């Protein structure tokens, strides 16, 4: 007798495989479409938003940052003038050397008189690029300035190598010291000696960043044990520390100094990724169409430029 019962197929019907294939094709398309809009992040720097907004909140009417690409060539005789943050001296010099090798016959002139003075020189048209260790103010953005973060920096708390205080500090203790509320090392477990505070001038971007980060925007103290220098430079600070002084500086400038010692903050040293006193460093420009600006920032943001910055200790 012939069995006319239909043979049952094992596994899902063919329509399931068709739907799965369509789903995979659709997912691959979406991934390819979206990946074109994902910005490439600079190592150690917060990437801009997809709409071009920089990490810091831009002021109303502020210009969006331009996209600077590595130039295939730069005309011999091109000169780039940079001024600003003393914290970026080593970065400026490293990029200057790399830029000259990449583009023979060009010249970069660098000085460092503080972030504030550099930004003012840029507004006046005296330089091409300002180096800044603080973000731009809303007024500076409204005046057409744009800041590009290029790396991160760690602010180190330093004492003289012969200072008998051998412990670390909490961020709260650091704030109390620089606001004149803690004035003797004995209050921290050290010797019964006044704490002599060496502060940077207000034109310093490091001064401004320290005030925002450590003092939460508050004022520095004015007690007799606090001295504010007239000029923003790290070497005079280190020279005045002695056995009872304390100051702050960008870590790359003091890491290899034999006459000073870096204090841990909240139990960690600046080499740690969890170190609390970290900040971005910026190059600021006004004219995105300037050949000098395009050439320098294109190099600074390129893999070659980032390698030079890393070699400078950032």
From TrEMBL:
<feature type="domain" description="PBP">
    <location>
        <begin position="77"/>
        <end position="303"/>
    </location>
</feature>
<protein>
    <submittedName>
        <fullName>Porin</fullName>
    </submittedName>
</protein>
<dbReference type="Pfam" id="PF12849">
    <property type="entry name" value="PBP_like_2"/>
</dbReference>
<keyword id="KW-0732">Signal</keyword>
<dbReference type="InterPro" id="IPR024370">
    <property type="entry name" value="PBP_domain"/>
</dbReference>
<dbReference type="InterPro" id="IPR050811">
    <property type="entry name" value="Phosphate_ABC_transporter"/>
</dbReference>
